[in-house]
Amino acid sequence: GESVGLHLPTLSVQEGDNSIINCAYSNSASDYFIWYKQESGKGPQFIIDIRSNMDKRQGQRVTVLLNKTVKHLSLQIAATQPGDSAVYFCAEISIQGAQKLVFGQGTRLTINP
Amino acid sequence: GAVVSQHPSWVICKSGTSVKIECRSLDFQATTMFWYRQFPKQSLMLMATSNEGSKATYEQGVEKDKFLINHASLTLSTLTVTSAHPEDSSFYICSVQTVREKLFFGSGTQLSVL
Questions:
Q1: Average pLDDT over residues A54-69
Q2: What residues form DSSP beta bridges with B76?
Q3: Which of A53, B24, B29, B30 is most buried (most C-beta within 10 Å)?
């Protein structure tokens, strides 16, 4: 079956530093990718998205990079803050089938003061 | 975006009882809502797609008679966990789909079955 996975389950960075969270996906037919942030006991919160016809998209302090050649997605968070501590999930939707959102494993990001 | 309200935030129940979880789309008429389950330190797993006015579509391995879904209006979907058992303890999350692929999530319901 199709799956979306993450390289690292945990990541710790110093406050103020930049962080990079990686994600590998296996469905080459996926055309839309989303990063979500989930704080403890809460539902996922949309961060940023990217379509397959793009390789980079920037938001406020966040950048998503897409490398379709190696089926790799990354989320860069600049100048990390304590409030960035959370679990981050990548998710994909395939243009085939029922277009259901498939979540990756998740990476726990911890910002150290 | 869409504002999604989920209730209750947490519930504790005895084994064998049934629990109903509500998901409301406060500012968007949602013909489709999704129900996810999340075990500790794991990702979200789609349980079913709730369709307004029709039967829900369940994912493989999800018992439709155990997890009853009702989507009677464009703003409300309910998930009822029937005859709950300790293994049903989990974090249940609903989501609303607005424009293509954009999902907005409720705050989740932590279910603990004793």
A1: 96
A2: B24, B73
A3: B30
Count of CA atoms in the C-beta half-sphere (13 A) of B79: 32
Closest Cα in chain A to B59: A100
DSSP B19-62: EEEEEEESSS--SEEEEEEE-TTS-EEEEEEEETTS--EEPTT-
Chain A residues whose CB is inside 8 A of the B90 CB are none
Of A22-36, A88-102, B82-96, least confident by mean pLDDT is: A88-102
Model confidence band, residue B101 (pLDDT cutoffs 50, 70, 90):
low
d(CA A89, CA A109): 11
CB under 8 Å to B62, separation ≥6 — which residues?
A: B47, B48
Contact A84, A35 (CB under 8 A): no
* CB pair distance less than 8 Å for A41 and B103: no
* Burial of residue A61, with CB atoms counted within 10 A of its CB: 0-12 exposed, 13-18 middle, 19 or more buried: middle
